[in-house]
């Protein structure tokens, strides 16, 4: 503790919190973060009950890893508001890992079963390999994913880049600052990175579901608009006929049956296992 922290004066991180919140309300990055987190909350917690006998491993694994990414983003915001900016970046790598793993486990029940039952941890390189081999992502797309991970890892580990920001260069010496000081430009940059990572987690949710058209089109439209706003890019690959998307979604929802009917359907379907086996002679 500094001498100030030992007195009745607020600690330097609390002072930073006040200055941060006052300035951040005018940053577009703050609004982007709020919007992305609202969308991610919808994706992470839209299903909250998972009956024992009706839940598949990939559904449960994807749900909990995506929820973890949401909590990690909350943590990144909290530590950033208190001036621990490098530590916020450390958490962003964890968000990347959790959200990326969620979309992989959602599509691979065997991996999900290993992850749950054996406590297996899959390194990011395994996730990238799955994207390339199984999902068929282009080399360019996988490289973008890898590049983000490499940059985030530089902040997650005690590299010179992640540690030297505590040093300032004076006339004839280096000065190791023992206090947290408010740097508005740097704080705003970090909030922008947190917002971008929250948007990445939203896209991970979209890619985890069976098909993007199974998600409410209003949610997808809002996410695509946010992506365009944040990137400044028109992103024509996100263009959709939203009237057609809504019509398709409404038709699917009207015919969707509750999962409680699954067992009965599996018992009676002519191609269910029990109905394929030879029947015993009468």
Describe this structure as you would to a colleague.
By secondary structure, the chain is an all-alpha fold. 68% of the residues lie in helices and 2% in strands. The protein has 14 helices and two strands; from the N terminus they run H-H-H-H-H-H-H-H-H-E-E-H-H-H-H-H. A two-stranded antiparallel ribbon has the order 1-2. Strand 1 and strand 2 (174-176) form a beta hairpin. Helix 7 packs antiparallel against helix 8.
Summarize the topology.
Layout: H1 3-6, H2 12-24, H3 28-45, H4 57-81, H5 85-107, H6 109-117, H7 124-135, H8 139-156, H9 160-163, E1 167-169, E2 174-176, H10 184-208, H11 217-231, H12 242-255, H13 262-268, H14 273-276
Antiparallel strand pairs: 1-2
Helix pairs in contact: 3-4, 3-10, 3-11, 4-5, 4-6, 4-10, 5-6, 5-7, 5-8, 5-10, 7-8, 10-11
């Amino acid at each position: 503790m500094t001498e100030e922290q030992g007195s009745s004066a607020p600690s330097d991180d609390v002072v930073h919190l006040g200055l941060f919140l006052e300035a951040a309300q005018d940053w577009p990055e703050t609004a982007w973060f709020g919007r992305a987190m609202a969308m991610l909350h919808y994706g992470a917690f839209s299903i909250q009950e998972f009956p024992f006998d009706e839940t598949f491993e990939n559904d449960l694994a994807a749900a909990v890893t995506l929820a973890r990414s949401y909590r990690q983003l909350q943590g990144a915001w909290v530590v950033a508001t208190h001036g621990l900016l490098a530590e916020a970046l450390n958490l962003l790598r964890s968000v990347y890992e959790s959200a990326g793993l969620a979309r992989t486990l959602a599509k691979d029940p065997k991996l999900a079963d290993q992850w749950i039952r054996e406590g297996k941890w899959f390194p990011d390189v395994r996730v990238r390999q799955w994207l390339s081999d199984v999902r068929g992502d282009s080399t360019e797309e996988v490289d973008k994913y890898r590049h983000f991970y490499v940059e985030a890892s530089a902040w997650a580990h005690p590299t010179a880049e992640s540690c030297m920001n505590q040093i300032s260069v004076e006339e004839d010496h280096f000065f190791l600052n023992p206090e947290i000081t408010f740097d508005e430009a740097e704080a705003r940059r970090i909030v922008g990175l947190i917002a971008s990572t929250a948007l990445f987690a939203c896209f991970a949710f979209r890619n985890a579901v069976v098909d993007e058209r199974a998600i409410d089109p209003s949610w997808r439209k809002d996410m695509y608009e946010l992506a365009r706003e944040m990137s400044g890019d028109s992103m024509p690959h996100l263009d959709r006929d939203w009237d057609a998307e809504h019509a398709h979604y409404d038709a699917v929802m009207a015919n969707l049956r509750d999962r409680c009917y699954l067992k009965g359907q599996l018992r009676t379907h002519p191609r269910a296992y029990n109905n394929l086996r030879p029947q015993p002679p009468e």
